[in-house]
Design brief:
The protein has about 375 residues and is mainly alpha-helical. The chain is built from 14 helices and three strands. The protein has a three-stranded antiparallel sheet with strand order 1-2-3. It is found in: Cell membrane.
């Protein structure tokens, strides 16, 4: 029995019968997994931080995460009820606001671990780059989709300049990881919009150049890359993450029974995947990875028959953000990628990250709302050919 009848014409009724309930269920499942994972990681995180500022309770971070979920879920549902034109306006205005915040960071920002990425607002820290990601993705989708209405529009140039501006501001923090993530998503969107392989190759070379620049001018970046390729230097973080994963085996030590997590840096954020591995086992890790894969597959499958270029480019980009960010976080925790401070979507503790993901997912749910797909579309045929 459903909550709403098909004849229900209220706002909630129309939303329920047009929203992608499968995608929504996957997001809710990831959020539930996140609460369980933060509960497991919270005692270790609280113990590592207690004494530095004030005494934290064992479940301090779980209580905060529950608060963020309580704020973020209604926010996600509210955004998902917005119309496509409103989503587009929200993204453009949000991109402008986030760029302004990034410009103001050197003056208003607080330095943490050698990087200036956060603005202190009444006892909480706001990270503009987290909110920038979904806003930028939808904005560039709008710019790139304009070429399907007018081929003379310099869509690639305009969006490329915007990418360069955003990338430059992120590198100033410095934050090369977010820069590469956003650039990779833009390349994917541009390819779907018709950018040639030659131009994509040039963008890829530019990305390699940015990484090389970071390697030579940033000791922090060079040390991470050197540790990954040579195994020399301070490998404490990844060693402890691998210890936690080994301790869990296939089925884990059991909820609350993990001990390696107490030596793990950032167990509630960057390395929460290792905590899941220790207490719930490698099978649970594979299940979490499968949930992220299911989100991406669900979105791209639904988009195969989409007739609106803007919707396709925006939704594909938002799904790619979730998938790529999850891949990077899990890759770092398993020593498949160099260390990078990037959260596991919907699972890691964090206010800015979780709320920004809720906004982005709300946009994704809004853009994919429909009662049925159109069966014939030149753009849909083009997308199937590209796939």
């Amino acid at each position: 029995m459903t909550m709403f009848s098909r004849s229900d014409r209220t706002i909630l009724g129309r939303w329920f019968w047009t929203v992608d309930r499968t995608l929504l269920s996957l997001i809710l499942a990831l959020t539930a997994v996140g609460l369980i994972a933060v509960a497991a990681a919270s005692p270790a995180a609280a113990q590592r931080l207690s004494g530095l500022t004030f005494k934290l309770g064992d479940f301090y971070f779980l209580k905060r995460q529950i608060m963020w979920v309580g704020v973020g879920m209604p926010l996600m549902i509210g955004v998902s009820m917005m119309s496509k034109p409103l989503i587009r306006r929200l993204a453009v205005l949000g991109t402008a606001a986030c760029i302004a915040a990034l410009i103001a960071l050197p003056v208003l920002g607080a330095e943490v671990n050698g990087a200036v990425r956060w603005i202190n607002l009444g006892g909480m820290q706001l990270q503009p780059s987290e909110f920038l990601k979904p806003m930028f993705i939808v904005t560039t989708a709008w710019i790139l989709s304009s070429r399907f209405e007018d081929e003379a529009m310099p869509s690639f140039l305009v969006s490329g300049v915007l990418l360069a501006l955003v990338g430059g501001l992120l590198i100033m923090q410095p934050d090369y990881g977010q820069t590469m993530l956003i650039a990779a998503i833009w390349v994917g969107q541009a390819f779907l919009a018709g950018l040639g392989l030659g131009a994509i190759g040039m963008v890829a070379l530019a990305g390699v150049g940015v990484i090389a620049l970071g390697y030579f001018i940033s000791p922090h970046i060079s040390s991470r890359i050197d540790r990954f390729f040579t195994g020399e230097g301070d490998t404490y973080q990844i060693d402890k993450a691998l210890d936690a994963l080994r301790a869990g085996g296939l089925f884990g030590t059991g909820p609350g029974e993990g001990q390696a997590k107490f030596s793990l840096p950032e167990p509630h954020t960057d390395y929460i995947f290792a905590v899941i591995g220790e207490e719930f086992g490698m099978i649970a890790c594979l299940a979490v990875a499968s949930l992220f894969l299911a989100v991406v597959i669900r979105v791209f499958t639904q988009l195969m028959e989409e007739d609106d270029p803007f919707v396709t480019l925006a939704a594909a980009g938002l799904a790619a953000q979730i998938g790529l960010q999850a891949f990077i976080n899990m890759g770092v925790a398993t020593s498949l990628l160099p260390s990078k401070g990037m959260t596991l979507p919907f699972i890691s503790h964090g206010g800015s990250s979780f709320l920004a993901l809720c906004v982005g997912t709300g946009m994704l749910l809004s853009l994919t709302r429909r009662s049925r797909f159109l069966k014939s579309s030149p753009f849909a045929s083009q997308m199937r050919s590209a796939a």
